[in-house]
Amino acid sequence: MTSTSRRICPIGVPMDLGQSRRGVDMGASAVRYAGLNDELRALGWVVDDRGNLDIPERNTLGPGTGLDYLPAVVAACTAACRAGRQVLENGDLPIFLGGDHSIAAGTVAAAASVGSTGLLWVDAHGDLNTPETSPSKNIHGMPLAALLGHGDPGLVDIGLPGPTLRPEDVVLVGVRDLDEGEKRLVQELEIRVFTMPEIDELGIAEVSRRALELLSHRDHIHVSLDMDSLDPRAAPGVGTPVKGGLTYREAHLLMELTARDGRLASFDIVEVNPILDQSNETAKLAVGLAASLLGKTIL
To answer: So what's the pLDDT on residue 299?
Structure first.
């Protein structure tokens, strides 16, 4: 049990414009239905749910794929940035409920615009593509590149013009599927990536400690949790599953150690797709991981 004067403010960003598989726009509702707010109140937090941002439904935008939806994605991310900044400037903690991972171009921008922020990116993928390097042209594979100043200027300039973060402000955990262009950018920028083989070798506890230490120069941490970072056996309800991911306990320990670090200021839960899920299990797991990140312990 934790006690705090800060409020937790869930903000739904029900967007599926960044990827080709439908259903992830219902992720925020699935996570709320799985009991997020009740779980956080049980931990002693005051919960001020801000509802969902008004994101256009794909069918209202006409036929299109990939980059056709870029203007709408930029507008949605700008709205997420504005909403998150308002919560952070009030001294409270926003939880952004996706939606696909392209929302992070706005959510991380909100965090970085308010204070010294390091980013812990927990994902099977790098999301380091640009329109030029992406094989699929899906925007949910581009937000981290945009945050580092690479890609479409509309995504790059959300919040403030130019790069939101420096490469040393970012650590990726759980990665096991990178496109060739992403590999080149990782090497060029010397971004620290803890792949699944490294987690297998070192153990998640050591990787968690190293990741947090790499971000020790920053006052606050934003966690961007893509549920496909977990193995599909634990989290089946995601649009881009990759075998060999984090186990249930590895993901919880990563969240628990991040909570113990004490610098968490904001976070995302993204890519929950209830259409692909089994009895809302992925959303329930997302709620459990959020609780671990916000101070829930066994004793």
So the answer is: 80
CA angle 144, 146, 151 (to 5 degrees): 125
What is the pLDDT at residue 65? 84
155: three-class secondary structure by DSSP: helix
Q: What is the pLDDT of residue 1?
A: 42
DSSP 61: G
- CB atoms inside a 10 Å sphere around CB 162: 9
Q: How far apart are CA 210 and CA 259, in angstroms?
A: 15
Domain count, the chain: 1
Best CA proximity match to 137, nearest among 271, 273, 20: 20
Model confidence at 20, pLDDT cuts 50, 70, 90, reads confident
- DSSP letter string over 72-116? HHHHHHHHHHHHHHHHHHTT-EEEEEESSGGGHHHHHHHHHHHS-
Q: What is the pLDDT of residues 252-292, one digit of tens each?
A: 999 999 999 999 999 999 999 999 999 999 999 999 999 99
The parent domain of residue 245 ranges over 7-293
Q: pLDDT grade, residue 4 (50/70/90)?
A: low
Question: Quick one: tokens of 278?
Answer: 């089994």
Name the 3-class secondary structure at 35: coil
Domain assignment of residue 298, yes or no:
no
* CATH label of the domain that carries residue 280: 3.40.800.10
pTM (global) more than 0.85? yes
Query: For residue 185, is it within any domain?
Result: yes
For residue 299, is it within any domain?
no
Residues 170 and 118 sit within 8 Å (Cβ to Cβ): yes
Active-site residue list: 101, 123, 125, 127, 140, 226, 228, 271
SS3 198: helix
Note whether 143 and 131 are within 8 A (CB): no
* Averaged pLDDT score across all residues of the chain: 96
